[in-house]
Amino acid sequence: MMPRHAALALGLLLGSAGSSSEAADPAQGADLYRRWCVNCHGPAGRPVLPGAPDFSRPTSLLRSDLELMTRIRDGRGAMPAFQGQLRDREILDVVAHLRTLR
Ligand code: HEC
């Protein structure tokens, strides 16, 4: 669970970026995940591509939504950058979906 102040900070940040301040939508995120992420990360979050993290493990994703969003936006190693492909808002929806996988 995200501490209250972090949720607040995130809300403020999104607000100041001009995005919607509605909560992230995991159902929308699931659609995006199936389209963009499933080939490497697998339908249940168990990696298909070696080296990808296992999202079904409770010890994965111990980062804030903001940190995960930055990671997904910028990519790292074999993980592609989604900047320009997904909007921040959509990335947050995907992150909300990732959190349902464990
Ligand atoms: C081409 C294969 C591939 C695709 C497509 C892909 N990933 Fe990844 N992802 C990886 C790999 C490999 C890593 C491990 C990168 C590393 O740390 O070296 C990774 C790491 C991650 C991490 C962990 C970041 C961290 O450091 O904690 C997250 C979160 C993530 N991916 C989310 C996603 C999401 C969401 C999508 C779809 C929008 C996606 N990935 C699409 C291969 C992929």
Would you mind describing this structure in some detail?
Helices cover 48% and strands 0% of the residues. It has five helices and no strands. α2 (26-36) packs across α5 and α4 (65-74) packs across α5 (88-98). The longest helix has 13 residues, at 4-16. Bound molecules: heme C. Heme C binds next to α3 and α4.
Output the CATH topology.
Cytochrome Bc1 Complex, Chain D, domain 2
Task: Classify the helix fraction into a percent range.
Answer: 40-55%
What is the approximate shape? globular
Overall mean pLDDT stands at 88
- The N- and C-terminal alpha carbons lie at a distance of 13 Å
Give a quick account of the main beta sheet: strands, pairing sense, barrel closure: none
Attached small molecules: heme C
- Poorly predicted ranges (pLDDT <50, ≥5 residues)? 15-19
The CATH class: Mainly Alpha
Strand content: under 5%
Number of strands: 0
Number of helices: 5
User: SSE order, as H and E?
Assistant: HHHHH
Number of domains: 1
Structural class: mainly alpha
What is the CATH homologous superfamily assignment? Cytochrome c-like domain
Radius of gyration based on Cα positions: 13 Å
The CATH architecture can be given as Orthogonal Bundle
